[in-house]
């Protein structure tokens, strides 16, 4: 009998949850950026061996709800933790423990789930700072074990995986062995387009951006895939920033996004990218439904 189950990854924004999911799965299933709200959906990454299947739920970073969008994100975190077989509290080892970390620790303790703490980014810390970060994590008084890890380099990740697998219940495969994520293709491609936008914009703009893939058209031979997508922003000034002087910004975004899509699809991609203004889209329930943000 195999072991299989769901593990929720919780943590403050920029703790490195998505990078950790990608490292465990061995493939890019979640986009990575140092901007808050990079992860807006609960993205499941699937890691499978002959003996176990670990389904990792990459959750949005904890933040105080400010609009309908962030309210939905907060509810998603609560539901995913309640439904999971266990949880990982991911801490940013470079930063001191904050109120958000303590709130999450209390919430996980109250949820009654098996919890492991991962102190991430230890590749950037010397021995003294690593020990200090581990001691601070221990003072949260949550978690059966604490692991120092570097999601970026893979240091400490195998030991963390072993501990997670040991806590999984016995059961059959939950997803096909070859599957790496359950994200629908249109949403996965939208995320790959959103990533270079996040990495090229600053300040509040990343919060106001979302991407919607409207069409994915394949040729008979699957040698060329046409992708048509919309970039939603909230103001004309934001639209101007995304497009850039002489269209240089949107061109650079398009080149980077097309390359990411080609790696994912294994085919040449023609990307048709348009920028649209929709005021207060983060409060638009119908649009959030269409964007797959539950």
What do you see in this structure?
- Helix 6 (185-198) packs across helix 8 (248-265).
- This protein folds into two domains: 3-166, P-loop containing nucleotide triphosphate hydrolases (Rossmann fold), CATH 3.40.50; 185-290, 2-Layer Sandwich (GMP Synthetase, Chain A, domain 3).
- The strands form two sheets. The chain has a six-stranded mixed sheet, with helices on both faces.
- 36% of the residues lie in helices and 23% in strands.
- It contains nine helices and nine strands.
- By secondary structure, it is of the alpha/beta class.
Shape: globular
Total domain modules: 2
Within the CATH hierarchy, at the fold level, what is the topology of the largest domain? Rossmann fold
Strand content: 15-25%
Low-pLDDT runs: none
- The topology string of helices and strands comes to EHEEHEHEHEHHEEHHEH
Query: What is the fourth-level CATH superfamily of the largest domain?
Result: P-loop containing nucleotide triphosphate hydrolases
Mean pLDDT: 87
| Strand arrangement in the largest pleated sheet | 2-3-1-4-5-6
């Amino acid at each position: 009998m195999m072991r299989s189950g769901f593990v929720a990854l919780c943590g403050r924004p920029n703790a490195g949850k998505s990078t950790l999911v990608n490292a465990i799965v061995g493939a890019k299933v979640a986009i990575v950026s140092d901007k808050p709200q990079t992860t807006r959906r609960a993205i499941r990454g699937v890691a499978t061996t002959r003996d176990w299947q670990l389904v990792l739920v990459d959750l949005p970073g904890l933040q105080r709800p400010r609009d309908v969008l962030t309210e939905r994100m907060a509810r998603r975190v609560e539901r995913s933790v309640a439904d999971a077989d266990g949880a990982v509290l991911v801490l940013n080892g470079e930063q001191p423990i904050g109120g958000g970390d303590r709130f999450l620790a209390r919430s996980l303790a109250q949820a009654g789930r098996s919890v492991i703490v991962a102190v991430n980014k230890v590749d950037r810390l010397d021995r003294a700072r690593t020990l200090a970060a581990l001691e601070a994590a221990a003072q949260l008084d949550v978690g059966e074990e604490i692991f120092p890890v570097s999601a970026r380099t893979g240091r400490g990740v195998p030991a963390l995986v072993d501990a997670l697998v040991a806590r999984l219940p016995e059961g059959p495969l939950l997803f096909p062995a070859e599957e790496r994520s359950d994200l629908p293709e249109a949403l996965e491609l939208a995320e790959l387009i959103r990533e270079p936008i996040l990495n090229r914009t600053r300040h509040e703009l990343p919060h106001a951006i979302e991407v919607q893939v409207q069409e994915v058209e394949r040729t008979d031979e699957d040698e060329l895939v046409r992708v048509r997508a919309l970039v939603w922003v909230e103001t004309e000034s934001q639209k101007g920033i995304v497009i850039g002087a002489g269209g240089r910004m949107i061109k650079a975004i398009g080149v980077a996004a097309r390359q990411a899509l080609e790696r994912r699809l294994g085919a040449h991609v023609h990307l048709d990218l348009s920028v649209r203004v929709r005021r207060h889209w983060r409060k638009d329930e119908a649009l959030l439904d269409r964007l797959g943000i539950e």
